[in-house]
Amino acid sequence: MTDGARAVVTGANAGLGLATTRALVAAGIPVTMAVRSTDKGAAAAAAIRASEPAADLRVQQVDLGDLGSVRRFAEGSTDPISVLLCNAGVMLVPEQSLTADRFEMHWGVNFLGHYLLAGLLLPTLTADARVVSLSSIAHRSAGRLDRQFGLGADYAPGQAYGQSKLCTLMFSLELDRRLRGSGSGVKAVAAHPGWSATDERPPRERGDAPGLGLVFARRISQLLGSSPAHGALSQVHAAIGAGVEGGQFWGPSLLVRGKPHPATVSAGARREDDANFLFALAAELTGCEIPG
Ligand SMILES: NC(=O)c1ccc[n+]([C@@H]2O[C@H](COP(=O)([O-])OP(=O)(O)OC[C@H]3O[C@@H](n4cnc5c(N)ncnc54)[C@H](OP(=O)(O)O)[C@@H]3O)[C@@H](O)[C@H]2O)c1
């Protein structure tokens, strides 16, 4: 690894992001915890240091639902980056809601904020860096790219989430094609955790509006999901594992749990015409072009 290089993990204060940060620290990698709340980030860093006193951790604020905040984060990020882990995400937001820039929340946070973050940080990536994007098995039920991006009158939380995770997988595959095309050694790799019981706080405490679907999903997840440390195995493998190639998609061997294994990419996610449309739109909306 390049001297002074760091990993950047979005959503590093909780769930899979926190488990991933712990794993990277255990592997001796300095980590910048890119978090929406620096108080939560500092508390999570303190919890990690309690068991890993030598951990090289930095906490830096970013709200992925605010493109201005993403730009400020990138301006303040000058160290070389060996791993950019685009992990933060919102899931099954009960009511249609918008980011600071008036994009649908799932699409804006899970995809567009990370598109801009990766685009702005590309010049600071080391020659052999990896950009890891978190998708989900839910991308498969999304079908093809829906060009309403969650802003239609027929908002459904599951569909909006699935579409955002389709976009994060398409982002990873297209980013890798563009990196290869430009002769870069940087790899874009996608991962999904299967089903992991992460945020167990009640919806009101998390700031979500109460919603039966979300409560039900969380309950089932608590019963059937893997631990965050287990759920994070695939994204940790994508980030630092041996034999990982750009353009791959990793997930648990038994779909919802298990060791890291090549995962199935849906036909919709493989459509290069839709991926090019998505990149052109994201470039227009963010002012950041990722050349092909
Ligand atoms: N758990 C699963 O079974 C599962 C399955 C498939 C995919 N995934 C994906 O895995 C990733 C991590 O999920 P998780 O289960 O660990 O969820 P989680 O426990 O709810 O954690 C989500 C993280 O994202 C952060 N975040 C949310 N909105 C943000 C914003 N606008 N700006 C910056 N950070 C923001 C949260 O910060 P706050 O603490 O400040 O809210 C938190 O750190 C997500 O992309 C999710 O879609 C999870």
UniProtKB/TrEMBL annotation:
Keywords: Oxidoreductase
Gene3D superfamilies found in the cross-reference section: NAD(P)-binding Rossmann-like Domain
SUPFAM superfamilies xrefs: NAD(P)-binding Rossmann-fold domains (SSF51735)
MF GO annotations: oxidoreductase activity
Protein origin, superkingdom: Bacteria
Family from the record: Belongs to the short-chain dehydrogenases/reductases (SDR) family.
Listed PANTHER family: NAD(P)-BINDING ROSSMANN-FOLD SUPERFAMILY PROTEIN, RETINOL DEHYDROGENASE
Protein name stated in the entry: SDR family NAD(P)-dependent oxidoreductase
Origin species: Nakamurella sp. A5-74
